[in-house]
Structures are given as structure tokens and as C-alpha cells.
Amino acid sequence: MTSNTRLEYLAQEQIDKFHRDGYLVVSGFLDTDTVTALLNRSKELLTEFDINDHPLTRFTTGDDNHVGDDYFLTSGDKIRFFLEQDVLDQNGKLTRPKEKAVNKIGHALHELDPLFRKVTLENQHIKRLVRDLGFHHNPLALQSMVITKQQQIGGEVPEHNDSTFLYTDPPSALGFWFPLEKCTAENGALSFLPGSHLTAPITKRFVRLPTGGTGFEQLPVPADCSGTPPLTGGYVLECCEPGDLVLIHGSVLHKSEKNRSSSTRFAYTFHMIESPPYATYDEKNWLQPTKAMPFSRILT
Ligand SMILES: O=C(O)CCC(=O)C(=O)O
User: Fold this and answer.
1) Where does the chain cross the membrane (predicted)?
2) Atom of ligand 1 nearest to the CA of 267
3) Residue of the nearest CA to atom 6 in ligand 1?
4) Residue 139: CB within 6 Å of ligand 1?
5) Each residue's pLDDT tens digit, 5-36
6) Nearest ligand 1 atom, CA 154
């Protein structure tokens, strides 16, 4: 990790808080017009996609049944639509309108959609923040998603850390998560276990299986995680406003509950990783860069 002395966007206290807690809420990062435009564009995408040629891939995250079909595995350079778990009847037909059946849209919004690209790869505030944080030497944009967290059915996201799913050696994932709607206890706001990035090692990684599909591979426990004092305190719920930014360290434990409210909880999120020679990203990872779409550098 590097450190800067002349800060361009963050205050030193925010940087210290990020390193202490493993996440940081930055209020009002996106202006209202940008949030409205991203929300409208997300809804347009949901209206435009054709369910008739869709394989009905649902987004499942369990240890034994994580999504891993071709539609998912080849989505790294596309804009694709992953359904909620409980939206098909026994005949495999959607039980609600497609716009209200999608769990998330991914994984190359930041490359392919001009509006999402502007907020991600062409955003001077992101570049300033990244330089201030000094988390990476030369960060690359890996993936992006709109998580729709549909009213009443928007699925729980169980406790996890992002470096398990977006693995580099050493782990280097960093999440940027923007609520596009108000996040509350009822609609599935994120909650975090502060400090867990210092105590909870990355013990497994999500991989493409040689036999097809996806699964988890166990990792050796890193030596620098032993002897760390145990955590005191529990999960902290972070209720956020549209346009806030939540920065998420790849090792911090976090989760969100099912959306039991009567309104959606849209959020836009993208992830960065470190580039070689500081970290390696190998062919076991589910998401693979292509010749036509290599991972873009953030600090060009
Ligand atoms: O949006 C959510 O509910 C979960 C997001 C999350 O856990 C992540 O982006 O790592």
C-alpha cells in the first residue's frame, strides 16, 4: 500500500477510519442529477432487456450452489441480467414482470454504458480519492453491477468478504458502493463488522471449476492474521442516502438482509484490484479479461 501526503479529496481522518474499520461512508459523493440519471438508466436497462432469449439464470450465492453457468461466466464484458431466486414457478415461468424479477445487472456497465463509464472510469473525484487512499499502486477496474434489491423479494446477501470472490494474490479488492435510493433497516441496508479486515483472513476463493461451473478452493491461513486481537462489538448497520459512497475493503465482513419493504433499494457498485507486479490475477477466477476488453486502469 502507498500513502500520499497532499490530499486531494479525502481528509486524513477518513483515511484512518477506512484503515481502522475496513469501510468508510463518504456522504454526498455523487450529486442528485447523477444519481437520478443512474437510477433512470438502470430502470431503462431493465425495461429494454429481452426475457425471451434469456436463459433464466438466477443469482445464487450459497457455498454449494453459487451461480456458475455460461451466461454468468461470460458476463465480464457484457451487460447481463441475473434473476432473483424465487421468481420462477414450477413450469419455469416468471411469476412477476421481468423488471421486478432481476436481482442484479452486471458486469461491464463501467465499460459499455456511457453513463456508468463516466461515473467510474472518467470520474476525477474517483481518481483523487484513489490517490488519497493509497490502497493500490496501479488499480484496475474489474467489474460493475447494479444491485436492484427488489421490494419484498430482494434477497439477503450473506456475510462475506469481496476478496473471496474477486481474488488476487495477495488479496487487493476494493469496493465502491453507491446507494441510488435511501437504504434503511427495512430495505436491506449494508452492515459491516468493523475491523474484521484485520482479523478475518481470506480462507477460500471462488473459482471456475475444471469440470465446469464454479466452486470454492480453500486457501492457507496467512501468517500475519494469527495473534491479532479478537474483535469486540458486532455488526454495524449503515443506513445511507442516495449519492453516498461506501468504500469497502476486500477483506471486511459485510452483509445485507432481505428487502422486506415495499420499495426497491437500487445500488451501483464497482470493484478495483491491484495490478502486476504488486498482485496477480489468475485464470482460476470466474471473471476473465478478454483481448477486446482488458481491465481498464483507473489512474491513466
Ligand atoms: O448490495 C448489497 O446488498 C450487497 C453488496 C455487497 O455485499 C457487495 O457489493 O460486496
Assistant:
1) none
2) 1
3) 255
4) no
5) 799 999 999 999 999 999 999 999 999 999 99
6) 3
What's the 85 CA to ligand 1 centre distance in angstroms? Answer: 16
CB of 269 sitting under 6 A from ligand 1: yes
**pLDDT at site 233:** 76
Q: Are 293 and 169 in contact (CB under 8 A)?
A: no
What Å distances lie between residue 13 and 17, 24, 176, 238, CA to CA? 6, 11, 19, 18
Q: What is the DSSP letter of 164?
A: H
Kindly state if the Cβ of 168 falls inside 6 Å of ligand 1. Answer: no
Say whether 130 sits in a helix, a strand or coil: helix
Task: Write the pLDDT tens digit of every residue in 242-276.
Answer: 999 999 999 999 999 999 999 999 999 999 999 99
For residue 5, report the distance from its CA to the centre of ligand 1, in Å. Answer: 31
Terminal CA-to-CA distance of the chain, rounded, Å?
Answer: 18
- 104 in helix, strand or coil? strand
Whether 256 lines ligand 1, by a CB cut-off of 6 Å, is yes
Tell me the domains of the chain and their CATH numbers: 12-222+239-288 (2.60.120.620)
Say if CB 143 and CB 166 are below 8 A apart: yes
Q: Is 177 in the pocket of ligand 1 (CB under 6 A)?
A: yes
Under-70 pLDDT residues of the chain: 1-4, 61-66, 222-232
What is 44-100 written as a DSSP string?
HHHHHS-GGG----B----TTT---SHHHHT-TTSEEEEE-TT-B-TTS-BSS-GGG
- The preferred substitution site among 107, 256, 271 for testing ligand 1, maximizing ligand atoms within 8 Å of CB, is 256
Among residues 173, 177, 112, 126, the alpha carbon closest in space to that of 300 is found at 126
